[in-house]
Amino acid sequence: MDLPVLLFASWAEALGASTVTVTLPADPTVRDVLAAVQARVAGRALPRPLVAVNHRYAKPDAPVRAGDEVALIPPVAGG
Amino acid sequence: MRTAIVDHPLDPTALLAEVASTASGASTLFVGTVRRVNDGKDVTGIDYSAYGPMAEREMAAVAAEAAERFGTDRIVVEHRVGTLGLGEASIVIAVSHARRGAAMEAQRYLIEEIKRRVPVWKREHYADGTREWVDPTGAVGAPAEAS
Question: Complex ipTM, two decimals?
Answer without folding.
Answer: 0.95
